[in-house]
Amino acid sequence: MPTVARSGLQQHTSRLASPWKYCAYRNDFHQKQGQPAISKCHQGIGCRLFTLINFMYKPYSLLNQLIALLCLLASATLTAQSGASLSGRVLSESNTPLEAVNIQLEGTAKGATTTADGAFLIEGLEAGNYTLLFSSVGYEQTSRKINLKAGEQKQIKVALRTTVTSLSEIYVRGEALKAENSTITVDVITLNDIRSLNIEQPLRLIEQVPGVDLVAYRQGGVADQFSIRGFGGGGHAGEAEVTIDGVSLNEAEGHSDGYADLNVLIPLNLKSMKVYKGPSSVLFGRFAQGGTLALDTRKGGDYQDFSFTASSFNTLDAQFALGREMDLGERQDAIKANLAFQLFRTDGYAENANVLRGNIAGRIGYQITDKTDIALSLRGHGSEWNAPGYIGEEQFLDEDRRRLQDPNGENDGGAKSFYSQRLDLNHSFNDGLRLLVFGYAVQQEFTRFAKFGSAPGGQTERFNTRDVYAAGASLNGNARLLGSSLNWIAGLEYYSEETDRMRWATSDRIRQRQTEDRLFTIQSVSAYAQGEWELSRYFRPSVGLRYDTYNGSFMANDPGQAAVSDDIDGLYNVSPKVGIRSTVYSGVDLRASVSNGFSLPNSALKYTAGIDLGPVQLWQYEVGATYRPLEWLEVDAAGFVLNTTNEIVENPPGSLEFINAGKTQRTGIETKASISPVNGLSITGTFSYIETEILDNPENTLEGKGLVGIPQTITTLNLTYTLPMGIGANYRFRDVGEYFISNDNAASYEGYTVSHLAVFYNFNKQSANDGRLFFEIQNLFDARYAESVFGSVDARSFAPAPPRNYSFGISYNF
């Protein structure tokens, strides 16, 4: 084969492993030839896709040259944009991404907060010299001086050093433990995510989390349910813990044991939602079987956010959130105040489905001294609603009748009031030790009129009053041990709850006769401790222990029945947690953990004398890996086995009908991938697979069967593209696989696939942080589906999801 002479430029490019290096060589070559240097490459989509290919297969000189042409085109396009931008990543000393790092351009109102992969973006900058300030809890504040040219798109990477001086910024227990040292799976949904999702219901946030499925009952103010790690009763039947700023939303003996209603929350007021998988954290107790939703509200800061959304079915949602930091004399930011409210109303998709809901929340903090601060938080909720109930399969398949109630349905609905008060007193003894002390109270009334089944009659009124008192303290520390950083937490908590539960048989909300009059009290004392030791980037162990003990009483004065009373007799549990985290090399993090958890017998069973029902034991074994080969690509995968003993399951949730599922096993894989190959384009996908099995049961026919309400697969795709001027579109896809709805596995639901599409205009170009206008189409392809299905082969009941519908809204940060 004849040899073809190559030009000097070709000789340079054939040796290169990156098109960005190619651009540098190309400039050098042109200058040597007396030609002007071309503008530098801005890492467009061509370059980044090449890098991914080149990471796996290299070198290909022809491909280098083709991609170089793409670089040139991208460079010309981006250089033409007006205004400079600054992007990059913030990492820890162990080279792991840092989330929620605050970034401020000194002397300006410009700034950003890093995402889960440590990335940030600041746009619309003029040419000039700037000083960047980086700050985060547990790390030294760092500054970086930069020079921006007109139209330049500069990228930087910053590493923050661990410090003990910022523990004074901790307000929520557990914040002293660092995310990059976590040996367990914790999915975090940030304020930026919340702003971009256009939601009015906080529980919808969990649809972004791998392996979590929302079971929307669509019954007005009734709490929806979710499945997590193979437990299908999250939020409704006590199989997941839910907290807001440390205040437990789980009701011990109200609607059902562990019922948690997120309708009391205001999405715009949330700072983050952390989803802990399984019984893995020492911070949470008996309800954390499948996991925990830990929601934190915004504290301090200067902001004024507003959002308004109008949707199909006469739906209106208005939210407002305000934050102010005020000086007191010569003391800067001595007072920190936050206020938020929400007003929501809808006629609903189905007949008799109107809802009216109002929420208000406020917090005021006062810096008593440089080391001590105090804060008072208040929350109020009021709602009234009607509920369409559930319909049979024949009606569900009939387009003309899907929106109607069941022919035998009645005027279901309800009302709720909820109030909470929390007082926090925090003190920093020194730079490495901070004490958090809290106390809170909850008062609640809940009324629900509900009819189950399709036969005539059978409506009930459920009325509960609930009073809670809780107090506790935690020490949060950061120290050096054998030359390595040790982060730790230790705490003690007391919890007391009294529930007065009454039931009536009713007809169209008219009481016929009382059926229950019961009083439950329960008190618990919990102690926990956990330490994370940063011995090296390769070996970062974590050890934790939790102890819980319970006392309580039960009194039943049901009409026509002999009075019954009993006490909880010495229920307790000790839960160890151990794990290891390792950064084997830059971009690859491995984790492994073993954790024990527990749950108490449901409802009155835990009080019954003569029945030896100790805590249900749960053991979770988990391994996981996070892979970041490139700045704009991240993959995370976790595999787990979760075993239980003597498990009692309520089916359907809220029915007060229980079965003994005996020993069970849940095995699954959860994966998530995020890719941002070019500015403005973001692609996120999740996939999970889970198998459940009853291993041992008093009823032999159930052995080998799967548990009800657990989809075998869940797949999501979220694709967002935003043009430089701020106009963009978002496409969301969700597929939920088949799951069993009867204990004998004879009846199942085939699952569903649904898509949503939104177009928007961001006031801050690439980000929704300053607000946006949006128009969204839910159920884009008009799928017929239900997120809640239960029953048997001959009688499946459905809560139908709405057909294609629309919403339009605006959010703005003043």
Automatic annotation (TrEMBL):
InterPro entries: Beta-barrel_TonB, Beta-barrel_TonB_sf, Carb-bd-like_fold, Plug_dom, Plug_dom_sf, TonB-dep_rcpt-like, TonB_rcpt_CS. GO terms for molecular function: carbohydrate binding; siderophore uptake transmembrane transporter activity. Residues 386-780 form the TonB-dependent receptor-like beta-barrel domain. The keyword Hydrolase does not apply. One of its GO terms (cellular component) is cell outer membrane. PANTHER family: HEMOGLOBIN AND HEMOGLOBIN-HAPTOGLOBIN-BINDING PROTEIN 1-RELATED, TONB-DEPENDENT OUTER MEMBRANE RECEPTOR. This is TonB-dependent receptor. Transmembrane segments: none annotated. Keywords: Cell outer membrane, Membrane, Receptor, Signal, TonB box, Transmembrane, Transmembrane beta strand, Transport.
